[in-house]
Structure to design on (166 residues):
């Protein structure tokens, strides 16, 4: 049985961008999440302020940063293809006291998937929340940056719901 090969290595095991020219254009959709654990005092201060700090509206700024990051993923990750995203939504939800969930859902009609764009959007939105709240505490944790689902390519993926705890 041949060993599995990484897609970004050529026959000589040198890094390369995957050639997607022969792939079929389909709708590609991916959703990713990042979670943040806030110390109780930070969660309370954020809630009491209407999600604002001296830097401005935390959630609104994080949403904008996540969308901008998803659109620029190819500039950050060397072998990602530049994509004209058709849709990108970032949502921030308080899951429990001190736990925020950031979700990024991205869609495009293309020959390559958008899971890296969704992951980048979720991660950068979480980093933005950290940046805007770090004056309150550096004990904020970003956890569980992960792909939740993808569709439209050769292999669909959906994370089992039971594995999505805080």
């Amino acid at each position: 049985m041949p060993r599995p090969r990484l897609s970004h290595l050529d026959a000589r095991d040198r890094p390369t961008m995957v050639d997607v020219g022969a792939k079929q254009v389909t709708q590609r959709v991916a959703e990713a999440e990042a979670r943040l654990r806030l110390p109780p005092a930070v969660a309370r201060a954020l809630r009491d302020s209407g999600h604002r700090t001296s830097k401005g509206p935390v959630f609104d700024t994080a949403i904008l940063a996540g969308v901008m990051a998803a659109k620029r993923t190819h500039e950050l990750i060397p072998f990602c293809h530049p994509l004209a995203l058709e849709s990108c939504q970032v949502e921030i939800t308080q899951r429990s006291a001190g736990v925020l969930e950031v979700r990024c859902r991205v869609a495009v009609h293309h020959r390559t998937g958008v899971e890296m764009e969704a992951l980048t959007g979720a991660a950068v939105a979480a980093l933005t929340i950290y940046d805007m709240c770090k004056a309150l505490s550096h004990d904020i944790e970003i956890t569980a940056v992960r792909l939740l689902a993808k569709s439209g390519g050769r292999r669909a993926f959906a994370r089992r719901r039971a594995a999505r705890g805080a």
